[in-house]
Amino acid sequence: MRVLLQQFNLRTDIPVKFGFQELRLSDPAIFDAPLLYITGHETFQLSAAEIKNLRDYLKKGGFLMAEACCGRRGFHTSFIQELQKVLPEYNLAPIPPEAQVFTLPNNIKSVGITPALAFQQENQTAIPPKLLGIEMDGRYVVIYSPYGMAGGWEMAQNPYAFGYDDAGALSIGENILMYAITH
């Protein structure tokens, strides 16, 4: 996240605090966080306390940014299932390409992808970004990428990962951060 925050600061002149705190979703301290970031490779299950806290956090104006690190199916499947438990009355749906999250600060129409994802996409080297979201009261409270971004933020994306290349991951990440702080 350090590179992403640094690039976001350079691109926007918005001051950032270089730090993070690992929290369990059951920890009441999540309500002090302006945004939560969740990533992983493997399957997982949320506890009842984590489900309740995350639901309350999102309903009270919180923002969740998530990604399937390296585009891993296990995390992707679990994330969708667990989010349905958190907000059963909402659907995680594709964010349309004209949404603000794709226009500010970067106007993103397509992004480069890793060799593994390119192979899966019939050897295309760039694709329109794919983000899923949950919209509540006119704003996205969850933005999720089924493709890996963190490797790109570290400027070391694994070529075997199903993800965006470094530049694409940074552009998408910057836009998600801008959306989170302006909505």
Distance between the termini: 21 Å
Element pattern in H and E = HEHEHEEHEEEHH
Average pLDDT metric: 95
Quickly give the structural class: alpha/beta
Strand order of the largest sheet: 1-2-7-6-3
Low-confidence runs (pLDDT<50, min 5 residues)? none
Largest sheet: 5 strands, mixed
CATH homologous superfamily assignment: Domain of unknown function DUF4159
Strand content: 15-25%
Q: What is the approximate shape?
A: globular
Overall description:
- The chain has a single domain (2-182), classed as Rossmann fold (3-Layer(aba) Sandwich), CATH 3.40.50.
- The protein contains 6 helices and 7 strands, in the order αβαβαββαβββαα.
- The chain has helices spanning 2-12, 48-59, 73-86, 115-120, 150-153, 166-182; strands spanning 36-40, 64-68, 93-94, 111-112, 126-127, 132-136, 139-145.
- Strands 1-2-7-6-3 form a 5-stranded mixed β-sheet, covered by helices on one side. It has a two-stranded antiparallel sheet with strand order 4-5.
- Strand 6 (132-136) and strand 7 (139-145) form a beta hairpin.
- Helix 2 crosses helix 3 (73-86).
